Amino acid sequence: MARRSRENGSNLFRISFGLIFVFLSFRPVHADGLPITGRVYADHYGYVQGLYSGQIAQTSLSAWLEYDSLKDRSTQQGVGVHIVGQGDFFYRSTEQNNESSSRALLREGYLSYITDSVTLRAGQQIIPWGKSDGINPTDYFTAKDYTVFNPDDEVKRLGAPGVSLNYTPDGGVSPFNVQAVFQAYYPQTKLLIPDQAIPSGISFEKYASSPQAFSPDAMEFGFKISYLKPEYDFSFSYFQGYTHFAEYEFDPALNQVAPINPKQTAIGGDASFTAGDYVIRLETALLMPENGTDTDPRFGLVEPWHWDTVVGVDRTIGDDFHVQVQGTLRQHLYYQSPNFYSDFNPTQTAIQRAVGTANALILNFQQQTNFGGTFRFGYASDSSSWTADLFLVGYFANGSDYLIRPQVSYLPIDDVRLVAGADLYGGEESRPLGALKDRSVGFFEAKYSF
Amino acid sequence: MNKRMMNRTILWAWCLIPAYSLAQAAVPNLSAKDIMTRNEDARRVSEFETRAKLTTGTIGSSSEKTKEFTLWRKVQKDGVHNSTLTRFHSPAEVRNEGILITENASGKNDVLLYLPNFKKIRRVESQQQSGSFMGSVFSYSDIATPHVEDYTYRMLRQERCPSKEAAKMNCAVIECIPANEDIQERTGYSKSVVWIRLDNFMGVKGEYSNLDGKMFKRLEASDIKVVDAKNHKWLAHTVYLENLETKEFTRLQFSKVKVNGGISPAVFTQQNLQKVN
Predict the structure, then answer these.
(1) ipTM, 2 decimals?
(2) Is residue B38 part of a domain?
């Protein structure tokens, strides 16, 4: 069976790369103003350690097509249309029982109206907020699909339909800027949930169904006021919506565990400035999920209010190297271990505690204070043909867990990039990153942009 | 020839003397700084927009890589420093990447880089500004413009210009030393020697020394044309820069130059930098 699955994956892998090279041979001559652009990429991910070692995590072929009616959004004004469509063919040996699957999705599709002062967009859009790298406490509006493997985390980002309004006073030259966002529903982050996080003996629904657009139980709103100068900038933000990471809830009547996305209010801010050879970035947010205080009957089982802060500094070394260090701090304003939860029914208490423990593992609220950091060391050759990047994420409060992500890329010709690397999880298996140890992967990607 | 006719001929001759001769005649009275002031004045266009082609290769190798972008530049309110926005069109990997360079009086320029894949702006710190501009031999600082007050000057000599199109012109050869360490760090140059045409005060050649004092880059500017006749403004439409150590070169060519077309100051803002997607 394993051999057959590997053969299926290898065939798709070969077909994927074959298609890229066929496409390359017929690639359009890039004329000035070609209205449709995009990318085609093939990925192969294999598990490299633990339970699934040697199995194919994902072999896939994907294409993005992008259309923009405005040739030059830097100076053109008026009404425009922007569309980004995505199609994928996947083969996965472990997640989907050796089956192939496909999907098509509208990544973005919006109408825009642009003047010097105003940018108004209506439709499907991705609105990532936050200045720090990789970990963004103020990224209230987007979600990520972590079940899709890709070297570029932004490919995993999901948006939602909505309206965003950006206003800059004084004909667009004031340093003040206000952005208001409305989303018709909350996008949902999909996590690669470790099997050991799932309690046994009960019905378990891994992923939530999609919320209904414009339903009062799904809409989101937020705004950001920024002060943007060439030498520094800072912003304050407010959000009223839902957590995009689902947490799990046990229903004793149905004996079922199902995911829910609680309501959430958040306030936050970010800033960045240059200090000589260093760029300093700060991002912080107080996230207040509903039921996240000590007065809630499920206190300890669901994600509590927490304050996330990331402070980072980066600088260049020589002509080709770049170093970045970020410190992260999560402080839970209310905290209780799931093991302190008790119910009148001992069985239900045990199940609730197990579900709470799973929530704490998935959503990273295993202790009141959790600190950690990221480290990035990058290299780019003079012509940028070769790049290398080493990214580490680790948490260190009461034990440790980490992710190491080395990556090398090469540009043999313009528009074609080859990437090889790995996502290696480690540390204590009872912790969020350590629990993904068996999901450590090595990968290769070929990407053609046109 | 009678006296009246002779006077008329002399008058016509005076009228026909080219402007560059006047300039060359006046040069002995100009200091190195005066010439560089006129150089800055000659190339300071109050605003312009141009398509640009950046071709990078290695001497002796046939393979070249080309990047195309649009550049917008506008003089700030102080009348000296510029704001520059570049937006890349090709290759597809860098499409819509934008770089906003805001020059300021301290010599520490602010450089913001927009990455459309991330939909985010990144700051480029001072030392990185002496690094490669989009994989070319040019640095971010080379793309910004030098200003008179950023350097101290010494006249080395005058000689025929080392340029095909200005071979009959005289050039002043001037040594430029950064006025402070910030400028030295931002540019990555400890010294430069420039050849300035004495007819229109445009630079035609430059030699640049690294922080160890070793000459490592050579620049040639050509295709120098008037872009704003009314205000006597010029632009080198082709700039060739060679790294003598790595043998890499980059040719920067401007086309479709539009001058004083009314570029809004709102173009040179962070808000505009991230408008593309």
Answers:
(1) 0.87
(2) no
